[in-house]
Design brief:
This protein is an alpha/beta fold. The chain is built from seven helices and 16 strands. Strands 1, 2, 4, 9, 10, 11, 12, 13, 14 and 16 form a ten-stranded mixed sheet that branches. A two-stranded antiparallel sheet has the order 3-15. The radius of gyration is 20 Å and the shape is globular.
Amino acid sequence: MPRYAINAVPIPPISAKPSTALLVIDAQLGFQNRAHFGSPSNPSFERNLALLLAAFRETTDELEAAAPRIFHVQHPSVWTDHPLHPSHTGPYNPDGTPARGVDFLPCAYPVMTNLDGSKRVITSFDEPKTPEQIKAAAERREKGGPQNEMLMTKHGQSVFVNTPLESILRDRGITTLVVCGTALDGAVSTAVRTAQNLALCGKWGGKGNVEDAAVGDLYTDGEKVVGEIVGDDGKRVQELVDMPRIILVEDATRSFIKPDTGIDPDVAHRVHVESLREYADVRTTEEVVAGLAASSSS
């Protein structure tokens, strides 16, 4: 089993297998509403998000069924005066024409596979609610081919509350979760912290922290985070930690700051990133793409 320090440079390989998933949170047009959200950090957010998705999809095309997964999370707000409510429109298209705030950024459109292998791009999505809508959605899924991408909705900050995400991570054997999207100080931070807690207590992806262990002794094999006691002969004596690997892509997420606070959005972004280093391996888009490529070529 290969062993890499969690924060090793260069980044340890990221497994290009179905046990790896990219979690794209709330990459939606309505976040362009400055009057509501304030000024954004990270002007490279859309570019980096597109690069991440392209890298994961390239791996999918090469390895077909034995490929990482992509989970798209959409937030349709329950508040009618919110920019992410399905009824809200604004000048969100590149040419300034109206578009729904709840719909996806063009750089992050989900891509589904048809039964004949062709692809279809999802630019707009409404959560099925009535029995008829739910039945129609199930029929569309049956007519589709095998999917490496999945779409789910949430209505609060947490991607784990009233969504199937936790059970999907367990049932599909996801052991590496790469997190990106918006907002860093909201849903992204909540997702990273909750995922780490689920991993730590053994509710997702392994036994968790089963004995006292030193953080400095943990390592990754490219898929999971492991801690152990090793004997003089180099053999494992006892497994102390067995939990999934969580990676936050710091430059493929974004924070927002209201103008009247006097706080620079990029300063706020850096503060929120630093607060999450205890819960995830924090990396750049360039590093994640390189780690995924290293695993694909090995």
